Amino acid sequence: MYDMATRERALALHTTGLSLSQVSRSTGISRSAIRAWTTRIDPSPRMTAECPAPSGRLGPTVPSGAYTYLLGLYLGDGCISPERRGVYALRIACGNVWPGLIDTCERTVRSVMPHNATHRVRAPGCTHVVSRSKHWPCLLPQHGPGKKHERPIVLEPWQRELVVRHPWELLRGLIHSDGCRITNRATRTVGGEVRRHEYPRYFFTNTSPDIVRLFTDTLDAVGVEWRTARRASGAVDVSIARRASVALLDARVGPKG
Ligand SMILES: [Zn+2]
User: Fold this and answer.
1) Which residues have CB less than 5 Å away from ligand 1 (the ion)?
2) What was the pLDDT predicted at 184?
3) In angstroms, rounded to a whole number, what is the distance separating the alpha carbons of residues 257 and 251?
4) 149-154, long-range: CB within 8 Å, 24+ apart, which pairs?
5) What is the Cα Rg of the chain in Å?
6) Ligand 1 geometric centre to CA of 115 (Å)
7) How far is the CA of 55 from the centre of ligand 1 (A)?
8) For 195-245, how does the pLDDT look when each residue is reduced to its tens digit (9 = 90+)?
9) What's the gap in Å between 135 CA and the centre of ligand 1?
């Protein structure tokens, strides 16, 4: 990358009357680079964007509801991995059977990190929504080596404040990533008449005790009743089956996509 003095020298040559091609020949800098500097002399925003979580809190330019939804998606199905030069890639896995969820996820990532490109990488059965920034670990400090269920997942005080403000956004993110809504159907004979009944319920499954606790604490905060069952694998299923609680989730979480 060229330093600012070099950029300014090249632009000065151009403004004093040399064509872009002439400046390019005399400086050895590509014509397209010089042309880009005529509209924006700064290095690309990717390199200079201010930290969206300065001094360990969410900055005022980041929409807090979208962030809290993204936190839920990340805790459910996301990972952050270091790449070169201090850049980190955030990847959120979305099942291909929910195309609406992929769109929502991409929109959300873009609204939280608007200056950086967001793109999709297809894999068997799922699509990864990917965004690269030096600041993903600032925004999602739960980043760390190893799997999430093998390390403690503790929210920072500023993240806990956001969850208190936007509990439904966190629940939406967690259910959209590691949850589902299913309908059990049954028939019952009442007075010689066969009646069909539907029992919708929500499930959330996760292996991290800390993430399960965050989910159930947040359900408690909004008045949704739940039960848990532990699988042989160690994963925990949280089930929400009471009619009033399912109705609350239907109204506030919405379909997966
Ligand atoms: Zn940062």
Assistant:
1) 51, 135, 138
2) 83
3) 15
4) 149/206, 149/207, 149/208, 149/209, 149/211, 149/234, 152/210, 153/75, 153/208, 153/210, 153/211, 153/214, 154/210
5) 24
6) 14
7) 9
8) 888 889 999 999 999 999 999 999 999 999 999 999 999 899 999 999 999
9) 4
Contacts of 136 (CB under 8 A, 6+ apart): 80, 88, 89, 90, 113, 143
Q: How far is the CA of 63 from the centre of ligand 1 (A)?
A: 16
CA–centroid distance, 107 to ligand 1, in Å, is: 21
The whole-angstrom separation of Cα 163 and Cα 196 is 39
pLDDT in tens, 137-195: 999 999 988 888 888 999 999 999 999 999 999 999 999 999 999 988 888 888 888 88
Q: Which two tokens stand for residue 117?
A: 């490109």
Find out whether 135 and 49 touch, Cβ atoms under 8 Å: yes
Does the pLDDT at position 47 exceed 70? no
Which pLDDT value is given to residue 69?
97
Q: Give the integer Cα–Cα distance in Å for 148 and 142.
A: 9
**In this structure, are residues 93 and 194 in contact, taking their beta carbons and an 8 Å threshold?**
no
Tell me, in angstroms, the distance from the centre of ligand 1 to residue 47's CA.
12
Average pLDDT over residues 51-56: 88
